[in-house]
# Entry
Amino acid sequence: MTYGPSEGAAGLRTEELPGLSLRNVTKQFVSGDTVVTALNDVNLDLRKGECAALLGPSGAGKSTLLMIAGCLMAPTAGSVIIDGNVLYDSTAGERALHDDREFRRKHIGFVFQKAHLIPFLTAVENVQVAMEINDVRPSEARERAQVLLDDLGVGDRAGNLPRQLSGGQQQRVAVARALANEPSLLLADEPTAALDAQRARQVMELFQHIAHKRGASVIVVTHDHRALEHFDRILMQQDGRLSERSEPSEVAT
Ligand SMILES: Nc1ncnc2c1ncn2[C@@H]1O[C@H](COP(=O)(O)OP(=O)(O)OP(=O)(O)O)[C@@H](O)[C@H]1O
# Structure
């Protein structure tokens, strides 16, 4: 289901629609007699061009929130709306309303804690392949992949295999891959854990740039409170609930 060209979820004009909306999203994991409520009635509207940090203690549900926002996992209840496209709706149960794989490929970029590069492809091929899956011509894909690697300061390692790169270099290749298809929603789960302070700062600045200059909605899970200056919003996930902090100083260190 997609809202029409001029009207959206709440009667908003399409250009004013949030990049991401989570509506009353609940996620429960059941194993045997145990039920874990990882997300409990979570609501979020993230505008296009907004860059949000997601904080919270271990086990609070941060990764689960990213997986659901990124359509890698269906919510138990609630709806997920990306750029006016209803991806999940509780009334439709577990079934995605769109072909979520195709939607994900075209519109969503992920960066995980570990780079997860394809080991037998070079750095540039790892980025290139993400574009080719979306039917970009190989020559154009290669050129754009090289530009992204240059932007991330690893252009000179384009021809190296992942095992020939340091952890931080691999992670920057993974960031380039996530940006390959100019996603409207970028989700990153502790992307700077393997980086030194300077590189971590550069990656956070890049995320900020992607939101502010390209109009993407960005969520970054981080434990690094020094990075909070790079974010427009600070979200806190605790005991399954999502809340918002207005100032970095409100976040306990
Ligand atoms: N596939 C699963 N099956 C059962 N329980 C799960 C599953 N995935 C997550 N959980 C549980 O859901 C809760 C939230 O997990 P989640 O990984 O989202 O937390 P987190 O905030 O990302 O934690 P961390 O900071 O340690 O990565 C935890 O209690 C976790 O054990």
Notes: The two ends are 42 Å apart (CA to CA). The pocket of adenosine-5'-triphosphate is lined by residues 29, 31, 36, 38, 56, 58-64 (CB under 6 Å). The domain at 47-63+96-247 is CATH 3.40.50.300 (Rossmann fold). Confidence is low (pLDDT under 50) at residues 1-14.
